[in-house]
Amino acid sequence: MTTLIHAPADRDTLKRVIREKIGDRLFVVVSNREPYIHRQREGRVTVQQPASGVVTALDPMLQTCEGLWVAHGSGTADRKVVDERGRIRVPPENPQYTLKRVWLTKEEEEGYYYGFSNETLWPLCHIAFTPPKFEERYWRLYQQVNQKFADTVLEEIGDQSAFVWVQDYHFALLPQMLKERRGDLAVAQFWHIPWPNPEVFRICPWGRQILEGMLGNDLLGFHVSRHCENFINSVEQMVEVRVDRQRPSIYHHGGIETQVRTFPIGVDFDQINRDVTRDFSKDEDLQSALKCLPEKCEYLAVSVDRIDYTKGIPESIEAMDRFFEKYPEMLGKFVFLRLGSISRIHIGAYKELNERINAMVEQINWKYAADNWQPVVFLRRELTYPEILVFYR
Hints:
41% of the residues lie in helices and 19% in strands. It contains 14 helices and 15 strands. α1 crosses α2 (53-65), α5 crosses α6 and α12 runs parallel beside α13.
């Protein structure tokens, strides 16, 4: 196993490529976020696919290979639509694969997701100005939830041969947990965020356990070569291993190999270009989204980001202030539209960030707004893919 799967547009080609890589193994994806969310709205159950890069990339693969997706069941109506084992066939309109939902207690979600994943690993790996929190309680719940997912995956797989593709920093311990009980499984992981240099990473009290957990992978992928190099250096300094930098691979526990590779990921421009040419004029819900824009809008700049302190949102608003100071002729013509879903609001740093952004948007609009025009529009909610596309037309 030397490459992760790059998805071609044609479904038959995609199926052939996947089967060439994994043979007749069951294709299993594990992620925190689920590909379909069921919610209770106005007395009825609705289903929505989140605007997520992971979902956009992997959902077509699972549909093609009729695999299994294991994820946290987070929707308000998720429990209402599954069978007695927490499973449901998706997508709803044409079921192709099984979604297995894992239920977490509030304590587990608070400690594993909001705590260790996003107050420890997230700022640590991004080397953010927000310092990571190292709390024993968070670490204990992170271990507990990783074990819960390992138990679920192994129960669902049974005796089948499988390729398990683990997604992101929520499951650093999962690969080793799987391999300890099923050494025959093919396990790969893609780490969607940066990996810090070893001097930074070694401040984590549980750094060695995290590295050993990730070495349970047969293949470990990062976005860029710098992150691969940082990971290899971290392992070399903190774990007893042998490193082959030419492959590059890490050998551990008597010669077991973990390949470390770079897999840059970008958007599918051709598909987006096709989608954006669709006629949205008859969709009243999508047309109503455009009503947030001021009447005067000759030029529109659109930025889509989850509200996070790593995204540079305050800096972008400051840049708009500088833009209008430098080019006053654009006043009344240019609008900067920020589309940002609010996330992790339970975490103090995110709550403070939201308050700061609100104040900055209010200030710049007070400074420059004129009749039927304002320079910055900030839409704070989770948008569907079509809702985002309508602003690009």
